[in-house]
């Protein structure tokens, strides 16, 4: 399954999807955004992730998509996602075709995160920022879409005063969890019935 076929289906599906915003009465959440970058590797679609350095105070060692908080100068959440991807990975916005946005997600750290799905042009050389990126990971979409790799656990979140479901994906010795795993779950749930995605999932099994 080529990236072009999958991207075409996702572009059409996301073009009709109206992303939902987070509304938590009584809570003020800071805006943030991430880019979910798709690349083609060995003729197969992959998602590109970053692993955070262990010395960072926030989420050390965690695997995530490039992104961060929205600056006052950012005209939109999409601008935030693209700016952060360029700052973290040296990925120019001009090299990304944005396919659409997904539903916002709240995080226990007080953010509401808006994800954007995008295809990275071939031939782009990434230049990860060592202070923020310990490793760049490329994981096949078919592996991430394999439901046998997915699990959920209940975690107490003191900020919310209740327990919430936390998603986990076990992938090749790495664990992708939290908001990043939930973004993938939301995308894959939204992809039900798409020919390219269904063909890709059959390969995962």
Give a short overview.
This protein is of the alpha+beta class. The chain contains 5 helices and 11 strands. The chain has a domain at 3-141: Nucleoside Triphosphate Pyrophosphohydrolase.
Name the features.
5 helices; alpha+beta; globular; Nucleoside Triphosphate Pyrophosphohydrolase; three-stranded antiparallel sheet; eight-stranded mixed sheet
Description:
By secondary structure, the chain is α+β, with helices and mostly antiparallel strands. The protein has a domain at 3-141: Nucleoside Triphosphate Pyrophosphohydrolase, CATH 3.90.79. Helices cover 25% and strands 35% of the residues. It is built from five helices and eleven strands; from the N terminus they run αββββαββββαβββαα. It has helices at 3-15, 77-89, 141-144, 179-190, 195-204; strands at 30-41, 44-51, 63-64, 67-69, 96-101, 105-106, 111-120, 135-140, 150-157, 162-171, 174-177. Strands 1, 2, 3, 4, 5, 6, 7 and 8 form an eight-stranded mixed beta sheet that branches. A three-stranded antiparallel beta sheet has the order 9-10-11. β9 and β10 form a beta hairpin. It is globular, with a radius of gyration of 16 Å. The two termini are 14 Å apart. The model has no long low-confidence stretch (mean pLDDT 90).
